[in-house]
Amino acid sequence: MEVYFENAKQSIDDQEKQLWDLGHEIWRNPELGRQEFHAHRLLTSFLRERGFEVEEQYIAPTGFRASFGAVDRESTGKLHVCLLCEYDALPELGHASGRNLIAEATVAAALGIKAVIEKNSNGKRLGKVTVLGCPDQEGNGTKIDAINQDFFKDIDLAMTVTPYSANISKPTMLTIMRVTLSYHGKTAHASAQPWEGRNALDAAVLCYNNISVMRQQLKPHMQIHGVITSGGVKPNIIPENTEMKFYLRARDHIDMAFLQQRANAAFVAAAKATHCEIEFNFTDHPYSNLLSNDALAKSYQKHAESMGVEFTTKCDLLTTPVGSSDAGNVSHVVPCIVPAFDVEGGVVNHTSEFTAAAGEEAAHSSSIRVAKALAMTAIEAMNDIAVINKVREDFTAVHGDSTALTSWN
After folding, report:
1. How far from the centroid of its chain's Cα atoms is residue 262's Cα?
2. So which residues are the signal peptide here (predicted)?
3. For residue 100, with 0-12 CB atoms within 10 Å meaning exposed, 13-18 middle and 19 or more buried, which class applies?
4. How far apart are CA 176 and CA 162, in angstroms?
5. Do the Cβ atoms of 260 and 268 come closer than 8 Å?
6. Among 17, 36, 67, 393, which residue carries the largest CB count within 10 Å?
7. Neighbours of 351 (CB within 10 A)
8. Taking the complete model, does pTM exceed 0.70, yes or no?
C-alpha cells in the first residue's frame, strides 16, 4: 500500500508547476456560476491532455466529467471514486471562497489516483476515477442535477475539499434554502399625495426588521441572512416594487421546515402591514446538510497528518458552521467527505483578504497537500476491502439500508 501512496504523491509532485498554473489562471480570471467558460476550457483541456476521457458541457454548459479506468464489480469488485471539482467565483470579490484551490486540489488528487490505476492495471483491485465538473456551487447546485440524473448510482465514494481558516476533517455544513421575495405596492408622489401610494420599500424594511427580531428566538445553527436587492428608483417616488433575497440555514431539513414556517410568517406580516402584495420564489435546489462519512474522514485525517497537516482541536472552530454546499446532497446518496483546509492566510472566507490569500503560493502548497491526502484516502479504500466495508457500514448506520446504492448489492 505504501508503494501506491508514494506513486500517487510523486505523480502530483511531478506536475505541481502545471497544477499551480492551472489554479492560478482560474484565480486570475474569476467567473460567476454558469459563466465559467474559461475555467471549463482550462480544466477539460488539462485533463484530456493527461489521458482522461472527457465529456464537455456535461449536465450544464460549463460542467464536465473526466474519467480514467474501468469498473467491473462482478469479477473484481473494483470501485469508482468521484472528485467533485468546483470553480465558480463570487460577485465583486472573485475567488473569496477559494474554488480555484478546490479545482486544483481535486484535479491533482485525480492525477494521483490515475497514476496508481495505470501502474496496477493487471487485475489489481482498483477501478475508476472521475472528476465531475460542478459549476455554480454558489447558486443552482449542479451536483443536485447530477443526483437527479442518476450520475451517482455508479459511484462508490465522493470527495472534495473546502478552503477555510483551519483544518477540519468533518466540518459542519448546514442545510440551506434560498428565497427571493418581491413586494408589490403602488406608486405616488411622496410629497404631494403620499396617501395614494402603497410603499413596497416599507414592506421590505419591515420584513428585514421582522427577521432581525426573530433571530433572537432561533435555535443554535439556525441562521437567516438577507439583502434588499431593489429598493426603489428615486426618493420622491413611493416605490411600487422591491426585491429581497434571503438565505435560510438549519442543521437539517427538519429544523429547516420549522425555520421556513417562522420566516414565512415574518415575510407575510410585512406585506399585510403595508397593504402590499408579496411574491415568493423559493429555490428548487435546496442544499442538504453534510453527513461526513466517518471512516473516510478518519482515513483522510491520518494521511494528511502524515504530511504535517495540523488539525484544529478548538471546540469553537469544530462546531462553527463553515457554510453550505450541494456536496451535502451528495453525502446523502453516497459516502462523502468535504474536509476544510487552512489556506495559511489567517483570513476569513468571503472577504477581499481571502481572495488575495487564495492566490498565494502558501494556499497552493496547502491544496497540494490535501490533494495527496484525498488521493491516498481513495487508494486505501480501493485496495483494502476492510476499509471500503467500514465506509459502507458507516454510511448505512447513518442512512439505513433503504438508501444504500444498488451497486453495492
Report:
1. 26
2. none
3. buried
4. 17
5. no
6. 36
7. 12
8. yes
The closest of 181, 205, 244, 185 to 213, measured between CA atoms, is: 205
**HSE-up (13 A, CA, CB side) for residue 306:** 15
DSSP per position, 349-398: SSSHHHHHHHTSHHHHHHHHHHHHHHHHHHHHHHH-HHHHHHHHHHHHHH
DSSP sequence for 270-332: HHHHHT-EEEEEE-S-PBPPP---HHHHHHHHHHHHHTT------HHHHHS-----THHHHHT
Q: Which of 299, 381, 301, 365 is nearest to 82 (CA)?
A: 381
| pLDDT for res 73 | 65
Query: Are the CB atoms for 402 and 136 separated by under 8 Å?
Result: no
Cα–Cα dist 61/382, whole Å: 32
Report yes or no: 404 and 392 within 8 Å, Cβ to Cβ: yes
pLDDT for 266: 98
| Cα–Cα separations (whole angstroms), residue 284 to 103, 142, 145, 321, 339 | 26, 12, 11, 23, 26
Query: Would you say residue 407 has pLDDT above 80?
Result: no
Q: Give 166's Cβ-side CA count (13 Å radius).
A: 17
Domains with residue ranges and CATH for the chain: 2-173+290-408 (3.40.630.10), 175-282 (3.30.70.360)
pLDDT digits (tens, 9 = 90+) for 287-336: 999 999 999 999 999 999 999 999 999 999 999 999 999 999 999 999 99
Whole-angstrom Cα distance, residue 332 to residue 395? 9
Instruction: Measure the CA–CA gap between 91 and 25, rounded to whole angstroms.
Output: 18
Length of the chain counted residue by residue:
409
Q: How far is CA 395 from CA 10, 85, 214, 254, in A?
A: 31, 22, 36, 20
Strand 241-250 versus strand 175-184 pairing type: antiparallel
Strand partners, 68: 129
**Is residue 75 pLDDT above 70, yes or no?**
no
